Model the fold of this input.
Amino acid sequence: MDELKLGPVTLRNRWLLKGFEMLDRRLAIKELLDEEVFNKLAPTHLGIFSCFGGITFFIFLMQIMTGLLLMIYYVPDTNSAYKSVVAITNDIPFGWAVRGLHFWGANLMVLTVMIHMGKIYFGGIYKAPRELNWVTGVALFLLTMGFSFTGYLLPWTQLSYWATVIATEAPGSMPGLGPLTKSLMLGGPDVSQITLSRFFTLHVIVLPASALALLTAHFVQIRTQGISGPM
Amino acid sequence: MEEAKRGWDEEPVSRRVFVGSALAGSALAAAAGVFYPLARYLLPESKSGGGKKETYSVALNEVHVGEARFFTFKRKPALIIRKTQTEVVALSAVCTHLGCIVKYHEEAKQMQCPCHGAKYDQTGRVLGGPAPKPLTPYSARIEAGNIVVEEA
Done:
């Protein structure tokens, strides 16, 4: 084998060929790649608004990477949280860039999710057989809101503190389950270290894990149902 | 002479090789643009000499009695005041009110902040204005004809 055609790509490098052959013999990836990647053509009726799901996923991956980097220096403790965020921004080399990417990524992700949902809604793409994918999509939208809400508290500034006070007072005034919901969110009567810890846990473990699981379902459904036809 | 005549046009680089190298070069540059900040971010102690204590020194005869000298210490403005022949003070020049840089007024023997008028004496104590705290002091000493400033 001195060359290998994968759709439009031709592999000639000896080492790449050897490596590919080694993998292909064990995993039979050539057929899979041909079918699912290289010879898979996108429908011609797709426009700019069809890209926003993918853009959202790209931003989500950026959030995971910048989030991991931030977590290396961030301290989820009421005495140190703000100081650690100031240190990330001012003292650690390129910390401003990492935090800036995470901050703007978070804002942009909400925007791109909205545009994506608008396209799906107004294009009628949620209709059968894609109703379940609309359901996972809405769940992912709610997770995005959860990311924004929990992430807002983490710098432990006046703004984040009072935003959390207000945003937990609101569900707290629900009739019936209100007080229970509020104390479940806060872990006590007011915003404290306990609140910071559980928001941190939600933000860095629970929400990302749920989002990854739902995204997998979201993408598998796209592959089974295919891209919807033109309007 | 034969050697010198061999120009770049004798063995033309094929378009494929040229475009390929250009692509590879751009890809490398892009990768460096990601991995350099990443490496610096993960190795922050390299920013100022591996966590070594920062010092600043200036020749004693460059600062006359009663004068002040501004310099950069720990990446922030600071000043040395030579109060007498043998007495030197080093302070942060960042006003504790809202972070402006204070000015030294030699006749009044005061630091005054141009933003909101906070006043400090030569040792950094607040004399008036909105400043909530004295200026951050650093340790300063005279050593072999030099003024040496270190973190207090």
